[in-house]
Amino acid sequence: MKICRNCGYVGNEKSVTKGSFGLEIALWILGFLTVGIFILIALPYTIWRLCSGEKVCPKCKSNAMIPLDTPMGKKIAEDFKIKIEEK
Ligand SMILES: [Zn+2]
Predict the structure, then answer these.
(1) Structural domain tally of the chain?
(2) Which of 38, 49, 56, 79 has the fewest CB atoms within 10 Å, i.e. the most exposed one?
(3) From the CA of 63, how far away is ligand 1's center (Å)?
(4) What is the dihedral of CA 36, 37, 40, 42, to 10 degrees?
């Protein structure tokens, strides 16, 4: 469980991929049309997109979510007046 520092949402983060899927496809098509020149650009772009996946809050889309079971997480939960069930 995680809590959002921005809006106080408690739950699981959502994964988002940076960059544009359309641009990625366009680079690959150009890569095949130009027999390889654009593949030199398309390949690193694809790898960058795969590596730069980000976890964000599903509610406010900020990447400020932190684990709830940390002192900081508990403090934020208190600030947002969210009850945490002790395990
Ligand atoms: Zn949020």
Answers:
(1) 2
(2) 79
(3) 8
(4) -80
Separation of 72 CA from ligand 1 center, angstroms?
A: 15
Closest CA to 42 of 29, 27, 32: 27
Q: Is the pTM of this model over 0.70?
A: no
Q: Name beta bridge partners: 20.
A: none
Residue 74 and residue 58 in one domain: yes
* Residue 42 and residue 58 in one domain: no
Q: pLDDT digits over 33-66, tens only?
A: 888 888 888 888 888 888 888 889 999 999 889 9
42 and 60, same structural domain? Answer: no
Stated as kind and residue range, the H or E segment containing 76 is helix 71-79
CA of 9 to the centre of ligand 1 (A): 5
Distance 51 CA to ligand 1 centre (A): 23
26: containing domain:
19-52
